[in-house]
C-alpha cells in the first residue's frame, strides 16, 4: 500500500473511548477492516453502538489488548494477522494522563506513566513491525502537544510523550527504508474520558501538594478553561484517518489550528525562554 491511498487492516489501541473509539469508526467508514483493541472488551459497548449507528459494525472487530502486557500484545497481533491475513497499519492511541509533580508523587507514578504511554507504544510497535514491513504499511502514534511542550504538573506524562516523539522520529527513516511510513499525531485538549479517567480529587491533590499547592491550584484553573474549548474526539481522529490514507503523510501532524500554533511556539523557541514565560503564567496565582 506504500504510496497509495487505499485501505486494509488497521489495529488501533485504546478504542473503548475518546479518540481511539472515534478513529475506529472513522477508519471503518473509510473502508478499513478495523481491529479495535482495548484492555477490557467488556467496555466495547459505546464503540459497537457508534459503529452500528455509522453502519460499519461488520468492519469493526474488538480484540483484547493491554499495551502493558507484552505477551498479550504479541498474542493480539498474531490473532489479527491470523484472522485478517496481515496487518497494514497500526494506530498507537492508548494512553493515560497523570497530574502531579515528582517531589510529591515519587517514582512509582512516573514509572507507571512510562509503562502505558511509552513502553506500551514501543511494545506494540516492535510486535507489529514485521507485519507492517511485509505490507509496506503505516505506523501512526497519537502523542500530544505535551510531547512537544513540557507542561507544568505533567512531568511524567510529558516525559513519556517526549520519549515517544523521540523514538518515532528516530525510527521513521529506518522504517521508511523498508517501506513503512511513520507519523505522530499531536492533539491539544480533546473532549474524551482522558481527564475523567484520572479520577482526580482536586482539593485532596492541592492539599497533598504542600508548597506546590498554590501553583497546582492555578494550573488546574487554567486547564479547566482550556478544556472548556476542547476539540471533539471525532475532529481529533480525522487527521489520523488522513495519515492512514494520504499517499505521502507528514511525520508530525497537529489536530487543530490551536495545537499547530502551540507546537510552533516550541519548535521556534531555541533557548526555551518563550515556553518558560508561557508556562510560568499557567502556575502563577496572580
Ligand atoms: N484528551 C486529550 O486532551 C488528549 C490530548 C493530547 C493527547 N491525547 C492522547 O490521545 C490518546 C487517546 O486519549 P483520549 O483523549 O481519547 O482519552 P480516553 O478517552 O481516556 O482514551 C484512552 C484510551 O486508552 C486506553 N488505555 C489506557 N491504558 C491502557 C492500557 N494499558 N492498554 C490499552 N489501552 C489502555 C483506555 O482504555 P480503558 O477504557 O480501559 O481505560 C482508553 O480506551 C492518548 O494517547 C492521550 O495521551 C489526549
Largest sheet, in brief, is:
7 strands, parallel
The counted number of beta strands is 9
> How many helical stretches?
10
Name of the CATH superfamily:
NAD(P)-binding Rossmann-like Domain
Tally of structural domains: 1
Mind telling me the C-alpha Rg? 19 Å
Counting helices, strands and paired strands, the structural category is: alpha/beta
With strands numbered from the N-terminus, the spatial order across the biggest sheet is 3-2-1-4-5-6-9
- CATH A-level architecture: 3-Layer(aba) Sandwich
Q: How much beta, percentage-wise?
A: 5-15%
Cofactors and ligands = NADP nicotinamide-adenine-dinucleotide phosphate
List the secondary-structure elements in sequence, H or E: EHEHEHEHEHEEHHEHEHH
Name the overall outline: globular
Q: Assembly state here? A: single chain
CATH topology annotation:
Rossmann fold
Q: What integer is the average pLDDT?
A: 95
Which residues form runs of ≥5 with pLDDT under 50? 1-5
Describe this structure in words.
The chain is built from 10 helices and 9 strands. It has 286 residues and is an alpha/beta fold. It has one domain: NAD(P)-binding Rossmann-like Domain (Rossmann fold, 3-Layer(aba) Sandwich), CATH 3.40.50. The N and C termini lie far apart (54 Å). The protein binds NADP nicotinamide-adenine-dinucleotide phosphate (NAP). NADP nicotinamide-adenine-dinucleotide phosphate binds next to helix 1 and helix 4. The site of NADP nicotinamide-adenine-dinucleotide phosphate has 30 residues, from helix 1 and helix 4.
